Amino acid sequence: MELNFTVETKDVLLDMIKRHNKMYRMGTPEISDAEYDAEIELLKTLDPDNEWFKHTEPAFVPETRKRALPIPMKSLNKVKDISELKKWYMSLGLKGNAGVICMPKLDGLSLLYNELTGEAYSRGGIENEGQDCTSHYRASIQCYNPASSFHYTFGEFVINRSDWEQHFHGKRSKFTGDIFKSPRNTAAGLLNRDEPCDYLEHASFFRYGVDESSLHDYNNFHSLVISINKSIFTILLL
């Protein structure tokens, strides 16, 4: 991995990571996702046992939007190759014939949605606390409610390819004057703003395992699922 920054000490690098993490969670990211991932990878190389990797940094949530989550929302870890996925599988102590269901993690912000009341939450604060995103969800005209028998669903608040290219890519925010950095950062920033805005009409919500039809404009979904399933099948045989 080629890094476009240098650091003098691990402490300086860790301070950079903490700052960039905080700014991202506040909805005002200073760097791209790729740059942040590069910082994390460098810290793993310099200090793989650093305490940073042993806890989940709570997201900043203003008191006016802080809510107790009706059911837990857990954080996710990234895997970049099959060996990491196999290591995770083995760490669970599963038997060789155990089945695992895998789906792609979309590049957006995780939401918990109450299908009965229309309330929406993102993760934030301490354990089992979240951020009320109900009014932001309702401001997105692309977020719809499929016929479902579920009470709660988990999903991803995203900006799809065509909307990103048409409404955000290379353009500046009318609120900050900064150029939109990426679909994920933009989606997070829109949800973390205290008040909903008209940019939200270009965002959408994909429910994991419920409505594949809402995954429009993600052309590689089918091939990605096939690839993941083949990889899992190989792991189960090993």
UniProtKB/TrEMBL annotation:
It comes from the Bacteria. This is NAD-dependent DNA ligase adenylation domain-containing protein. It comes from Bacteroides xylanisolvens. Residues 70-197 form the NAD-dependent DNA ligase adenylation domain. GO terms for molecular function: DNA ligase (NAD+) activity. It holds the Pfam family DNA_ligase_aden.
